[in-house]
Amino acid sequence: MRQHAVRTAMTLYRSGTLDLETAAVQAGTTPERLRVAVARQEGTAVSTAPETRDDGERILLGAD
After folding, report:
1. From CA 43, how far away is CA 9, in angstroms rounded?
2. Does residue 1 register a pLDDT over 50?
3. Using an 8 Å Cβ cutoff, are 37 and 6 in contact?
4. Contacts from 9-15 at CB under 8 Å and sequence distance 24+?
5. Distance CA 45, CA 17 (A)
6. Taking a C-beta distance cutoff of 8 angstroms, is the pair 9, 34 a contact?
7. pLDDT higher than 70, residue 52
8. Which pLDDT tens digit goes with each residue over 17-43?
9. Cβ atoms 21, 31 nearer than 8 A
10. What integer pLDDT is reported at residue 51 of this predicted model?
11. Treating both helix axes as pointing N-terminal to C-terminal, what angle do 20-27 and 31-42 enclose, rounded to 10 degrees?
């Protein structure tokens, strides 16, 4: 069921019906994860380099 919610949210975001934040809430994920999922589906390169938070601590990346 969650996969269906993510696909629906991605479709609504890409069509401009929902903004990124609203679509992410509907899908039960973060805006960043939804953005990455949309980019992957569209074949757009997404950076997988570790990022850091404002306090300098690395953000761990993981696979779903």
Report:
1. 18
2. no
3. yes
4. 9/34, 10/34, 10/37, 10/38, 10/41, 13/38, 14/38
5. 24
6. yes
7. no
8. 999 999 999 999 999 999 999 998 887
9. yes
10. 57
11. 100
Average pLDDT, integer, range 12-16: 92
Determine whether 12 is exposed, middle or buried from the number of CB atoms within 10 Å of its CB (0-12, 13-18, 19+): middle
Phi and psi torsions of 49, nearest 5°: -70, 145
Amino acid identity, position 44: T
Q: Which residues 6+ apart lie within 8 Å of 1 measured at CB?
A: none
